Amino acid sequence: MSNRTLIRGGLVITAADETHADVLIEDGRVAALAAHGSTVAESWTADRTIDATGKYVVPGGVDAHTHMELPFGGTFASDTFETGTRAAAWGGTTTIVDFAVQSVGHGLREGLDAWYAKADGNCAIDYAFHMILSDVNESSLKEMDLLVEEGVTSFKLFMAYPGVFYSDDGQILRAMQRGTANGGLIMMHAENGIAIDVLVEQALARGETDPRYHGEVRKVLLEAEATHRAIQLARVAGAPLYVVHVSAEEAVAELAAARDKGLNVFGETCPQYLFLSTDNLAEPDFEGAKYVCSTPLRPKEHQAALWRGLRTNDLQVVSTDHCPFCFVGQKELGRGDFSKIPNGLPGVENRMDLLHQAVLDGHISRRRWIEIACATPARMFGLYPKKGTIAPGADADVVVYDPHAEQTLSAATHHMNVDYSAYEGKRITGQVETVLSRGEVVIDQREFTGRAGHGVYTPRSTCQYLN
């Protein structure tokens, strides 16, 4: 027996179009769209009809940068794959791409298998993996080829965190050359970690231990320098490059200059850099620790450059870098030494709503909202058109979104497994009402009806901007 759902009367928004259309869903996929009130649409019957009158019907969000259960600084990110994907669904995100981690001295396969095991049977929505390369050598370079073949088609390297994830320029170049050969996309955490460690040591020696110094030592120039260096290494290797969590105007300028030369260089930013600033890091009584992430929050004046980059397509994607640590017992590990505060913010539940607020604030258009949150991440990481759009044949990952509902973001009402909200008390307009994942209703009129294990692992093709 086929299972048919009909979403009637909404404004369907994709990266390409806005149309008043009804959406017919059959057996987990979008079967057809037809103009609302048309003879075709009126003839459709379904087991379930969802009234979307006065609402938006948008593709489920694709968050291409999350860290569920990530080990960091002697602790673990507080969201599991179960709690984190449930929170994502609440926020209108129906696919995450998380990061499997290679440990130094171990193979990529071992790291990837560990992440498969963490996620398997626990996810409320679909998921895929990138691979973090912590140990670039002949063996791991060969393994990259095998991972690309099985649908893990992107590899993250770090210019930051010496002694943990750090790769030197020679290792980065080798990985980029391998990516050129096998089609894998190299993702880069671009900060000069060697220089930053010197500044950290000097700051602590001066007794500068508060959270705000985290932002002061991780200087804008050291993000810009690393971004420039990553671009030049990619040029030498003939490789495409995706720079994660871009936070500073000077780093955007490096990306823009590269793109102006016609290079395959891409940039991502995150809601925290668009809506928060060093003012948050400087909050008294150690409250600033809640906002410690890397790259760090920047002074407010950088926000305009990030919004401009999103409008001009010098930045293509907004992901969350969701990596939550509770204030009590986790962020507190860095009391008296900012360098020991676990780096990361919660945000997987807030991204779609914050970007809708950005539409209302005049920063981006409605279609650009869907482009940067759904379509482009799906294309960038080889998931399109299965994910990221509403079109016949696509997975029925669909969100009915109420653009008029008002809400106040708060730890008291969010579903992420963390004891604070980075946006506590922020009032926004727009809210997810109903969410379908592969045709199954997982949020029904603001009630969670999903389940752990509904989400499936989704292999990816290579970056679709290079084909």
Keywords:
467 residues; alpha/beta; eight-stranded parallel beta sheet; 14 helices; 18 strands; globular
Helices and strands: which structural class?
A: alpha/beta
Q: Major β-sheet, in short?
A: 8 strands, mixed
**Rg, nearest Å:** 21 Å
| Outline type | globular
Low-confidence stretches: none
The end-to-end span amounts to 38 Å
- Name the assembly state: single chain
Our estimate of the beta-strand percent is: 15-25%
Helix run count: 14
Task: Give the overall average pLDDT.
Answer: 97
How helical, in percent, are the residues?
25-40%
Q: What is the count of β-strands?
A: 18
Mind explaining what this structure looks like?
It is a single chain. The radius of gyration is 21 Å and the shape is globular. It starts with a strand and ends in a 24-residue tail after the last strand. The strands form 3 sheets. Strands 1, 2, 3, 4, 5, 16, 17 and 18 form an 8-stranded mixed beta sheet that branches. Helix content is 31%, strand content 23%. α4 runs parallel beside α5 and α5 packs across α8. With 467 residues, it is an alpha/beta fold.
